[in-house]
Amino acid sequence: MTHPRRLLLVNGPNLNLLGTREPGIYGTATLADVERVTTDAAAQRGFEVRAVQSNHEGVLLDAIHEAREDCAGIVINPGGLTHTSVVLRDALSGVGLPVAEVHISDVRSREEFRRHSYVADVAVVHVIGEGVPGYATAVARLVDILTGQAEG
Ligand code: CA2
After folding, report:
1. SS (HEC) of 79-144
2. Among 85, 94, 119, 136, who pairs with 81 as Cys (CB 3.0-4.6 Å)?
3. Residues with CB under 6 A from ligand 1
């Protein structure tokens, strides 16, 4: 199959609350802003984006499995599932697509329990603590890998 020029954007539990609470940690941008930033960054590179956000783990797993059919890579902010979910990690490693892991906040400088990510070692790109613009960084780095332009 030719390389599909589409990315799956996955936002995990509670990220629908962005822009409504905790602006000191997550800023004031909304989930719609996140999806726009990601879509624009992809479009600049000739890729489209299919976006999913859910508070239900199984919905996220199904979207990741379906990405096998028509996506070239996955940009994911797993939310709190980052720190808890072996099944999300297994889904990502199971589909075998390149993954970019994004966190809006700097999870390295918050509570101890946020320092471990079950997703980190199945992702090829990690963007942590850059706020919402970090999604654009993740797209740029993922597309560079997909198109063979990543620095060695
Ligand atoms: O920094 C990130 O992007 C996180 O993935 C966000 C998760 C958190 O559990 C991770 O440790 C780091 C939380 C997403 C919930 O976002 C909210 C936004 C506004 C108000 C309440 C929650």
Report:
1. HHHHHCCHHHHHHHHHHCCCEEEEECCCHHHCCHHHCCCCCHHHCCEEEECCCCHHHHHHHHHHHH
2. 85
3. 14-15, 17-18, 20-22, 26, 77, 79-80, 82, 103-105, 107, 114
Residues belonging to the active site: 26, 103
The residue to mutate among 76, 77, 127, having the most atoms of ligand 1 within 8 angstroms of its beta carbon, is 77
Q: List, for residues 38-71, the tens digit of each pLDDT value.
A: 999 999 999 999 999 999 999 999 999 999 999 9
CATH topology of domain 6-146: Rossmann fold (3.40.50)
Is pTM beyond 0.90? Reply is yes
